[in-house]
Amino acid sequence: MSLLTQIFTWWNGATIGTKIFTSRHGIHVGTDEQGNRYYKSKPTTKTGRTDITERRWVIYNGTAEASRIAVDWHSWMHHVVDETPTEEDYVAREWQKEHKANLTGTPGAYRPDGSILGDGTRKPVSGDYEAWRPE
C-alpha cells in the first residue's frame, strides 16, 4: 500500500495513526478465521488505581466492514463476555449461522418482488384493493 493510502484511507486497513496507537496502547489478544486481529488496551494506573474501562478494537484484514466480525468475537468486542474465544474454547450454537458478508450495494443484494433493480415484475394484487382515481 502506498504511503498516502495508509495515511488517508481507513477502509483499506489500519492507518498509520491506528498502527502507532495500537503499538503503544494495545495488547493483541487473538485473530479470527478471516485474519482480523483483535486488541485490548493495556492496563494503566492513573491516579494510583487501575483504569476500569478497557478499550477493545479490531484491525480488519482487508476492507473495514463491521459485519466481518465473527460471531464468537462479537460478544467479546461488546463486553458481553470477559474471556476471548481463544481462552474459552468457543463452540457455536446449533442455531448460529456461518458468517455471510453484507451484500448491500452488490449484485447479490436482496431485491424484493417489484423492485426496479430486480426483474421488475411483482405479484398481482388481490381483489380487495382498488386504486383511487380523481373524478
What structural class should be given to the helix and strand makeup? alpha+beta
Give the N-terminus to C-terminus distance in angstroms.
65 Å
Task: Give the ordered list of helices and strands.
Answer: HHEEEEEHH
Strand content: 5-15%
Query: Total helix count?
Result: 4
The radius of gyration is 23 Å
As residue ranges, the low-confidence spans are none
Anisotropy-based shape: elongated
What oligomeric state best describes the polypeptide chains here?
Answer: single chain
Strand arrangement in the largest pleated sheet = 1-2-5
Description:
With 135 residues, the chain is of the alpha+beta class. It has a domain at 3-66. It has four helices and five strands, in the order ααβββββαα. It has helices at residues 3-8, 16-25, 71-77, 85-88; strands spanning 26-31, 37-41, 45-46, 49-50, 56-59. The chain has a three-stranded antiparallel β-sheet with strand order 1-2-5. A hairpin with a 2-residue loop joins strand 3 and strand 4 (49-50). The protein is elongated, with a radius of gyration of 23 Å. It starts with a helix and ends in a 47-residue tail after the last helix.
